[in-house]
Amino acid sequence: MALLTDLLDLVLPQLCAGCEQPARLLCPGCRQALADLRPGRTEPDPFPPGLPRTCAAGPYDGALRGLLLGHKERGRLALARPLGELLGAAVGALRAGEVVLVPVPSARAAVRARGHDHALRLARAAAATRGLRAAPLLVPARAVADQSGLSTQGRAANLAGALRARSDLAGLPVVVVDDVVTTGATLVEAARALREGGARVRGAAVVAATQRR
Question: Residue 17 domain-assigned?
């Protein structure tokens, strides 16, 4: 299915993923908007205990929001390349050195519904831009409820103990990567599971950070 989606994305008329104006993938204006982003430190408010140092490529808004939704929910897999470059830039902002990028795992049902694992795809694309390795070292330990509509405390409770490391990761330096950070609860749980597995968590990197109002 992923291969078919890639081919269709190349041959069918498309709208810009950022603004929905006619364009094969991104219009010049949205390309420039992405080029103008400056990756840097982000901290959810309130700050959740256990959150590693986190960098984001930009705010979850405008063209960046459109790209993420297009890749994750609309099957525009060609967007993995520009999104991977942005995620790679966020990884670079951490200055974490030689690390393995570990994506937050998607629920199996979500992967089946979308036809691809968007988080792993982005992690691999980002790793390629930095000369690093990406590996799915986390797996779900139990089912979780839909995060939509949950409070900060509700998200933290929903995710507590939800992940585990695949194997003994003794001493492995890692950076957790994801598409979006909102409350930070997902990154906290991923970092906890990796530390419990023996890894050294050097930070977290995301494509976009939700701007809470």
Answer: no
